[in-house]
């Protein structure tokens, strides 16, 4: 990847994360992919050096950096050969904690966040449900107040790292949909313990195509009780609170997709230089070189969009001239472009390897299996293509969706 134009902070992050990731070679990720074993050693190594708090406030033990630096961190992890699985093992710890840091109560700020940063507790994100999908406002999981507790009943799906997490950031309905004036009302956000010994909680692991080193789950709540201080912010304001982390997530996922794409192109270029057929390296043939050059340029273009989006996100906190709409367009466009560029790069890496691209030892088959994640989640490419023209191009030939619905903020959280 061309590194010109990045800030000193971003380059420092990249160098430090590369040193950590060098401890985990491709063989490590091959084994964890095949055995479906959590990469707890990577999580521990990143926690030991304080990187899980990269974008959290310094007063809670975080580094106080921005999403621009966090995006670089996730890209570097993915690009090291860890791929989407390695990045997703800490993904929620970075972005799902953003609303918690901003709206959490004193106990959550003083105990929960430091334990997440230290690596003692891992986090998963509970929003997506099997019957609502992208229509987050119609989710059915309820949290009913009973004395000094909330009783949770419902189901979540595609919850990554639930098998190893200690905490879940959960979105549930505290007021029935038919009793609110707006569908965005009556949702509340919680930071709850995951007590696997409690019969009111059940986790079912989902077998999946890629990213097998991190677990994905169905989670069932059957009158699962949590203390009232699990509530984040005010009751009924959960949807507004959760929006605080969604555009950040788009940037992080764009970075992860970029890392996967660059890793694939690097593998393919190396193979093309070394593989000799008909008396010369196959990389000297335009049929090999040109598709890789095209994939590389797509990655470079998506890189510019991704870090522009992250920069806008960070600056919007202090620069009021940067609108929420502008940030939404940038972050969702970046996620889309990076995901598409990664898909092209991974597919062409497999084809460059020919038959060996089908072999596990060359890694590119693993990259191809994983590159579908950013195309699907947290909002699919088809939804972005359908909705962005209505909001940004004034193409209102179908019913109009609000900017809140469009940009980000209903999701299919594969791995969240």
What's the arrangement of secondary structure elements?
Layout: H1 8-21, H2 26-35, H3 40-48, H4 67-95, H5 97-103, H6 106-118, E1 123-126, E2 142-146, E3 149-160, E4 167-173, E5 187-193, E6 201-205, E7 216-227, E8 231-232, H7 238-274, E9 276-277, E10 280-281, H8 286-315, H9 324-353, H10 364-370, H11 373-376, H12 381-392, H13 403-409
Parallel strand pairs: 1-4
Antiparallel strand pairs: 2-3, 3-7, 4-5, 5-8, 6-7, 9-10
Helix pairs in contact: 1-4, 4-7, 5-7, 7-8, 7-9, 8-9, 9-10, 9-12
Describe this structure in words.
- It comes from Exophiala sideris.
- Residues 236-376 form the Acyl-CoA dehydrogenase/oxidase C-terminal domain.
- Keywords: FAD, Flavoprotein, Oxidoreductase.
- Belongs to the acyl-CoA dehydrogenase family.
- InterPro entries: Acyl-CoA_Oxase/DH_mid-dom, Acyl-CoA_Oxase/DH_mid-dom_sf, AcylCo_DH-like_C, AcylCo_DH/oxidase_C, AcylCoA_DH/ox_N, AcylCoA_DH/ox_N_sf, AcylCoA_DH/oxidase_NM_dom_sf.
- The chain is of the alpha+beta class and 416 residues long.
- The protein folds into three domains: 8-118, Orthogonal Bundle (Butyryl-Coa Dehydrogenase, subunit A, domain 1), CATH 1.10.540.10; 123-235, Butyryl-CoA Dehydrogenase, subunit A, domain 2; 239-409, Up-down Bundle (Butyryl-CoA Dehydrogenase, subunit A, domain 3).
- The protein is 50% helix and 14% strand.
- It contains 13 helices and ten strands.
- The protein has helices spanning 8-21, 26-35, 40-48, 67-95, 97-103, 106-118, 238-274, 286-315, 324-353, 364-370, 373-376, 381-392, 403-409, and strands at residues 123-126, 142-146, 149-160, 167-173, 187-193, 201-205, 216-227, 231-232, 276-277, 280-281.
- The strands form three sheets. A four-stranded mixed sheet has the order 1-4-5-8.
- α1 (8-21) crosses α4 (67-95) and α9 packs antiparallel against α10.
- The protein is globular.
- The two termini are 28 Å apart.
- The model is unreliable at 398-416 (pLDDT under 50).
